[in-house]
Amino acid sequence: MRDLLPTEMATWTRLSRAAADLCARRGYAPLVTPIVEHTDLFTHGVGAGTDIVEKEMYTFKDRSDRSLTLRPEATASAVRAYFEGGLNQRPQPARLWYEGPMFRYDRPQKGRYRSFRQFGVEAIGDDAPGLDVEVIELSGAWLRECGIEEVTLEVNSIGDFKCRPGYRRALQDYYRPHLAELCDDDRRRFETNPLRLLDCKNPKCMPFQAGAPRTIDHLCEECAAHHRAVLGLLDALGIAHHQNHHLVRGLDYYTRTAFEYWDPGHGGQQNALGGGGRYDGLAEALGFPSTPGVGFAMGEDRVVLSLQDAGRTEPESGPQVSVVPAAEASEAPAMRLAARLREADVRVVVQHGRRSLKAQMRQAQKLGVSAVLILGEEEMASGHVAVRDMLLAEQSVVPEEGVRAAVAQILGGRLVPVGGAG
Ligand code: AMP
What angle do CA 17, 277, 95 make, to 5 degrees? Predict the structure, then answer.
């Protein structure tokens, strides 16, 4: 599993802020659920026959011998919380969003990690096609707000429990003569979850995908009408999309609308930035009353990767000012001075510890601050502070009450340098 280090966190913060802001403006409320759940939640909710349940879950026994799993995704948890927290008693649909770490045991590679973070929304309690389009619009707005420019929206309908069995049979009929030519995984999927055959990335199997039957040719009238309404609204709102008749979702509980964002710069489908869709069958699969829902999960790690490759990341925002207590008794006054500047929204550190002034100045240089405030013996005695402008390499002694203005002048005239050496 990986660490996210300070150098990239400013970019992550931009993603989180965009999520919170866009969701608030659309009436989506934040939801936090635990990162461990009973294993059953995922085996029932994500579905046996999916890669996640078959080979990607971190499952362990707790001290009471209960089987727990680190969450591989959050939709099942959101639906559980919706019922257990009484959100089903409030006005419907419940509009929820979350952000946080997910865990999947997979071979780590670029863009695929064992711990990764998702931003997602779930709109639960309504089956209107307009809600599908609402979450699609929200996910697209979030990608744009994060700075992702080139992305394609792939849309499909995978039907529901009424019409999907017919499609599954058509798919099996199509693949049956080719079984010997498929990879081992696909031969297994042929029985357990044939829709996943369309998702296989094995070069042996991919040539068969283009000619496979299309989901939309097998939709029942209700699913077809829902799909037409979704596409009509996307067109009316000018949301560019590509109808992808082979897009399926790996999770069993999905119904009707399925969508994904592909990053053409990163191998397209191989590196979906996120996806979502309708899951009208999920609540029932978890043992709750049948309740429709629609949502998405966006992969924040992949969005950050894409921004890094495009050189569009946020610089780390290190401290702007450091305060050096250079006299015997100046540590407390230095900390008070720092506190006053922080009230004015300045990012300030105090350089604690007994080092020579020269060493302290070298340290300030490495921190990349714009101004250093020095409280030496002389300054302490006269109620003054030495203020050094690091870029101009100029130093002046100002009375304590003038420090704020002096700092503002140094910071105001130019951009604050980025933290770190140089
Ligand atoms: P899923 O829940 O499988 O539909 O995944 C939604 C999004 O989460 C994907 O499109 C990826 O962007 C991201 N994602 C899924 N698995 C991983 C992983 N192992 N590492 C990084 N990102 C992931």
Answer: 50
Structure tokens of 159?
Answer: 């039907």
- Probe residue for ligand 1, chosen from 109, 112, 249, 253 as the CB with the greatest number of ligand atoms within 8 Å: 112
Q: Which residue intervals of 26-74 are DSSP H helices? A: 39-42, 51
Dihedral angle computed from the Cα positions of residues 42, 47, 50 and 54, in that order, rounded to the nearest 10 degrees? 60
CB-CB contact of 343 with 359 (8 Å): no
Cα(212) to centroid of ligand 1, in Å?
25
The distance in angstroms from the start CA to the end CA of the chain is 31
Is residue 299 within 6 Å of ligand 1 at its C-beta? Answer: yes
Q: Is the CB of 247 under 6 A from ligand 1?
A: no
State which of 2, 46, 102, 298 you would mutate to test the pocket of ligand 1, scoring each by most atoms of that ligand within 8 A of its C-beta. 102
In one-letter notation, the amino acid at residue 288 is F
DSSP state of 200: -
348 forms beta bridges with 321
What sign for the dihedral angle of Cα 216, 220, 225, 230?
negative
User: Average pLDDT in the 8-36 region?
Assistant: 97
Condensed to tens digits (0 to 9), the pLDDT of residues 257-267 reads 999 999 887 76
Asked if omega into 165 is within 30° of 0 (cis), the reply is: no
- Tell me the two tokens of residue 216: 């939309």
What spacing in Å lies between the alpha carbon of 60 and ligand 1's midpoint? Answer: 22
Q: Indicate the pTM of the whole model.
A: 0.91
For tokens 């399926």, name the residue: 248
297 lines ligand 1 (CB under 6 A): yes
Pairing assessment for the beta strands 67-70 and 371-375 based on DSSP bridges? unpaired
Q: Is 145 exposed, middle or buried (0-12, 13-18, 19+ CB in 10 A)?
A: middle
Closest CA to 122 of 250, 279, 274: 279
Going from the C-alpha of 12 to that of each of 19, 21, 30, 68, 182, the distances in angstroms are 11, 14, 18, 29, 40
pLDDT tens digits for range 376-407: 999 999 999 999 999 999 999 999 999 999 99
* Mean per-residue pLDDT of the chain: 92
CA angle 184, 185, 189 (to 5 degrees): 120
Whether the predicted pLDDT of 268 surpasses 90: no
Span 233-256, mean pLDDT?
90
Q: 276, 281, 250: which is closest to 133 by C-alpha? A: 276
